[in-house]
Amino acid sequence: MAQGLEEERAGTTAKAGPDIIYAAIDQNEHDLKEINRKIFENPELAFEEHQAHDNIVKLLKSKGFAVTQRAYGIETSFEAEYGSGGRVVVFNAEYDALPGIGHACGHNLIATASIAAFLGVAEALKKSGKEGRVRLLGTPAEENKGGKRLLVAAGAYKDVDAALMLHPGAQSRHNGRSGTAYAHTLANEKLVVRFKGKAAHASMYPFNGVNALDAVMLSYSAISMLRQQIRPYERIHGIVNEGGKAPNVIPDSASLNYVIRSNTKKEAMRLKDRVLKCFEGAAIATGCDWEIDMNEYFQYSDLRPNKKICTMFAEAMDDLNSPVNCDLQSQVPGLGSTDMGNVSYVCPGFHGFYGIPTEEGAYNHTPGFTKFAGKAEAHDLTIVAAKGMATAGWRVLESELVAQKVWQDFDDDEETQIYSP
């Protein structure tokens, strides 16, 4: 009788795999399409994603999930969980938009993919009766200030065995594959620097003034010259936030907003120190005081993709006839940055990329990409990728050996410089 019970359990567990996940996602297709549409048609900026928050919470509650609204003290974050005991897998949902161009990075699709994966894995846990918990975490403000940074600090990932999410990009095919399971992103340092001078009449008493705008312009020029002596994968880019209020008044206050990127957070901090010398030199040359606005300062770590999770996602996508690249030896530095990098430093992380069809030149963060992020074909491809991601997450929950390998990869992946000095 004991043997028969074991066989029955084994049979139940075998059924609670990809087929159940895929069926659950397909059964929720109408609701997934609707939440995608609502987020896309109502773009909201960082920490202002109130409609997205409320609409997703409403959807989850309608399906019987308990949801913590405004989770971890963040007004537009939420957390839903299904299951008990065992390991924990988190799917991160992003839903903030960009100023003026809406969902030009496809965060409507990112949220849809994570919601779909959560629903699929929850159903697999339910049908299998296995221990384990799956969470859907609302992670606002990826485009500015980084909600995941705050969630990490609040302990949202302290008991997590794997955190997963997907990101759409302009579709390009290589060897019949569109998308990448294993990819790095750059670390960055974002800062606003303000110079303080002394106001004076620009014509009558210029000798009484200390020109903060001059310090800004000297900084900008010095950084432009510095760019010649940085590594090919590094980036320094910025704007002038404030340069004065009237041409006949010497500005007593002026500021710049800069982003400094490099391959790892160690390298980004080192490059930041070189940039700070440009600000310091400009202040000395002009007689201004200067300071970093700490309310505007934040860091994104480089992404440390977990090799085992990436491999499992790629295998699942092969089974779904939507293959992606998965070169675990790739040392190509990333181009953009994400606060998912911060998460990947505290638990095993996955941030896969998949392609959606766009017109020539319609890349992320352009109005052209916004147009295609709202199309039905982009949604359909997102659902396929979500099934692959859900399968990878499920394997972490249901297999002790897989979970051990995931953590071994995380432990082995010490912070390194892919391109050494």
From TrEMBL:
<feature type="domain" description="Peptidase M20 dimerisation">
    <location>
        <begin position="192"/>
        <end position="280"/>
    </location>
</feature>
<dbReference type="Pfam" id="PF07687">
    <property type="entry name" value="M20_dimer"/>
</dbReference>
<dbReference type="Pfam" id="PF01546">
    <property type="entry name" value="Peptidase_M20"/>
</dbReference>
<dbReference type="InterPro" id="IPR002933">
    <property type="entry name" value="Peptidase_M20"/>
</dbReference>
<protein>
    <recommendedName>
        <fullName>Peptidase M20 domain-containing protein 2</fullName>
    </recommendedName>
</protein>
<dbReference type="InterPro" id="IPR052030">
    <property type="entry name" value="Peptidase_M20/M20A_hydrolases"/>
</dbReference>
<dbReference type="InterPro" id="IPR011650">
    <property type="entry name" value="Peptidase_M20_dimer"/>
</dbReference>
<dbReference type="InterPro" id="IPR017439">
    <property type="entry name" value="Amidohydrolase"/>
</dbReference>
<comment type="similarity">
    <text>Belongs to the peptidase M20A family.</text>
</comment>
<dbReference type="GO" id="GO:0016805">
    <property type="term" value="F:dipeptidase activity"/>
</dbReference>
<dbReference type="InterPro" id="IPR017144">
    <property type="entry name" value="Xaa-Arg_dipeptidase"/>
</dbReference>
<dbReference type="InterPro" id="IPR036264">
    <property type="entry name" value="Bact_exopeptidase_dim_dom"/>
</dbReference>
